[in-house]
Design a protein that fits this description.
The protein is of the alpha/beta class. 56% of the residues lie in helices and 17% in strands. Pfam families: STAS_2.
């Protein structure tokens, strides 16, 4: 859809007479193209990350490496990822937070959901490599009482 919008903006730019109108059409086309490429990039990246065998392997510890910001915007995608791994019933779920730069209160909902599911199925959750900010957020909300931390943090 965004590629179609970029093409339409470029086509319209050919018929607009004032130079500032052409410039606006080029800006609109560039913006639409950027959004289209970003959408494709995120879709491809999510599919690649969700298909990692280490996260879905049966019979051994599953490791989910999270990265970036875990906020209300990203909580659904992160939740789907953790749910998919928990559905495989690993003996232990390790959540690596080494590359998490921000964990908001809204983002912690994914941890509450994961703990609830894991507790019901008897799967322990281990948090590894938690930076100070995500760890402080987990502590503030009391999640560190039900989550275990590995010693490599």
């Amino acid at each position: 859809m965004w590629l179609l919008a970029a093409g339409a903006a470029l086509g319209a730019g050919a018929y607009v007479e004032p130079s500032w109108g052409r410039l606006l059409c080029l800006i609109a086309a560039a913006t639409a193209l950027r959004i289209a490429l970003r959408t494709v990039w995120h879709s491809a990246r999510s599919a690649r990350l969700e298909g990692r065998p280490a996260e879905h392997s049966q019979g051994r510890q599953a490791v989910v490496r999270l990265r970036g910001e875990i906020t209300a915007v990203t909580v659904d995608r992160t939740g789907r990822r953790l749910s998919a791994v928990l559905a495989a019933h690993p003996p232990v779920l390790e959540i690596d937070l080494a590359r998490v730069t921000l964990l908001t209160r809204d983002g912690t909902q994914v941890f509450f959901d994961a703990v609830r599911t894991a507790h019901a199925t008897g799967i322990p959750i281990v948090i590894s490599n938690a930076r100070p900010q995500p760890r402080a957020t987990l502590h503030t909300l009391g999640l560190d009482r039900v989550l275990h931390y590995s010693h490599d943090t």
